[in-house]
Each structure stands twice: as C-alpha cells, then as structure tokens.
Design goal:
The chain is an all-alpha fold. The protein has helices spanning about 5-15, 20-40, 50-75, 80-90, 100-115, 125-135, 140-150. Helix 5 (about 100-115) crosses helix 7 (about 140-150). The longest helix is centred in the middle third of the chain and has 24 residues, at about 50-75.
Length: about 150
C-alpha cells in the first residue's frame, strides 16, 4: 500500500475515532502532499508526486516541528511544544525507521565505496546518493558533517 493510501485510510479512521489531534495532523500531511502535487502538475508531471517525494515532505515536516519544539521550549511554552511533539509522533509513523549511528556510518561507507568518492569535491554526489537511498531514515544536516570528515580524512 502506498503512502497516500495509508494516510487517507488513517485520516478516515481518525474521523471515525473522533481523534481530533491525529486528524488535524493527517490533514496537514495531506494538504502538504496536495500542494506538492499541484506544483508537480505545473511542471508537467500529471501523476503528481511519488512516494519518494512524499517521504521528503514528511521529513521536512518533522524537521520544522523539531525546530518549533526547540523554540517553544526556550520560550517556556511547553504546551505548544507538547502539541508539536504529538504531531511529530503521527508524522513519523509514515517514515521509515531511523538508522542508528552505526548504521549511518555503514551507509556512508557503502555510498563512498559505490560512488568511488575520494575527495571533498565528491561530497555533493555522495550526499545525493545518500538522500536517494535513505530518504527519511537519517538527518542529512548531521550526516553532511560526517561525510565531509570521511572524505577529508
């Protein structure tokens, strides 16, 4: 079952369960996907976006909410931070399992070997391949520094 179908089914279930918080988050996800669909159609892709782009949208939504949580906690708004955390939990249900540190290092090593990367000039190619293979499974902001260290060393 593709991600869109799973999200739509979950939205219907949340309506039946009268789970307003979950329903609200699922509607936000659906709206973000539809926005990207409209943009894709404008670019000539009549099918809209695929699962890869949906994963990218979800990852971006989680990242935005994590930044909001940090801001709210610094501002003493723990109620808003808790709401954002709840949204993160719902969104992450549709993302692949996050890789642990050891798995991230192994993935970096594998992509460096597969691409034949040997210097810092190959960083863009390595990052692009990591994003393609492991979308939603790692924090690419943090991974960038590790790839740079790996290629510089």
């Amino acid at each position: 079952m593709d991600l869109r179908t799973r999200i739509t089914a979950a939205m219907k279930q949340a309506m039946r369960d009268k789970d307003a918080a979950r329903l609200s988050t699922l509607r936000l996800i659906n709206a973000a996907i539809k926005d990207r669909d409209i943009a894709a159609r404008g670019e000539g892709r009549e099918d809209g976006v695929g699962d890869e782009e949906v994963l990218s949208i979800l990852s971006k939504m989680v990242k935005q909410r994590r930044e909001s949580v940090k801001t709210y906690e610094e501002g003493g708004r723990l109620d808003l931070a808790a709401r954002e955390e709840a949204e993160i939990a719902v969104i992450e249900e549709y993302l692949p399992r996050r890789l642990n540190e050891t798995e991230v290092d192994a993935a970096i090593d594998k992509v460096v070997r597969d691409t034949g990367a040997s210097s810092i000039r190959d960083m863009g190619r390595v990052m692009g391949e990591l994003k393609q293979r492991y979308s939603g499974q790692m924090d690419f902001g943090a991974v960038g520094a590790r790839v740079k260290d790996r290629l510089a060393g």
